[in-house]
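Hi F.,

I've been meaning to write this up properly since the lab meeting, where we talked about keeping a consistent format for the predictions we share between groups. The idea is simple: the sequence comes first, exactly as it goes in, then the structure tokens exactly as they come out, then a line or two of notes. No screenshots and no reformatting. I'm using this chain as the first example so we have something concrete to point to.
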Amino acid sequence: MANRGPSYGLSREVQQKIDRQYDPELEQLLVRWILAQCGGDVAQPAPGRDGFQQWLKDGTVLCRLINSLHPRGQGPVAKIQASAMAFKQMEQISQFLQAAERYGIAATDIFQTVDLWEGKNMACVQRTLMNLGSLAVAKGDGLFVGDPNWFPKKSQENRRVFSEDKLKEGQSVIGLQMGTNRGASQAGMTGYGMPRQIL
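Output, unedited:
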């Protein structure tokens, strides 16, 4: 799987476009957050896209991250072990992705296992981790470690309840999407069929 040769033509253009979406500054922010969230038992990665991919590739860091967002002893990934075997690494990545979806990340915001394992779309991996951080901050359960300003703030529900009188008042108002009748007059209009007067 990972031993593919270089791509050519349209495939190469598509891969270059995907590679340009990768953000090195976002990588540094995510590394800071993951190190803070997981504690001292996670090693620092080598800088750059390849270092970031190798750091996350076996799935152990990701599984520790998702477990750290749950109360101690209630983590969704029960067995985390480093392995050199490809299928074990991919299995741990899959466990992280399933746990992230159960945590509240939308299925459309989650990367595919091969995006990380083969390094095909690391920008998508970054987006998933960004969404996970934002969701952890928004939950406000005290398990998030780090600066909440690192992540964009998720919108919260702001339900409004209107009385029946207020709702009836709103029915008599012409919404501005329909236009307005203020300032409209027929002054200066001529009757239909009359010739235009040019002086």
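Notes:
Residues 23 and 123 are 7 Å apart (CA to CA).
The mean pLDDT is 82.

If this format works for you, I'll send the rest the same way.

G.
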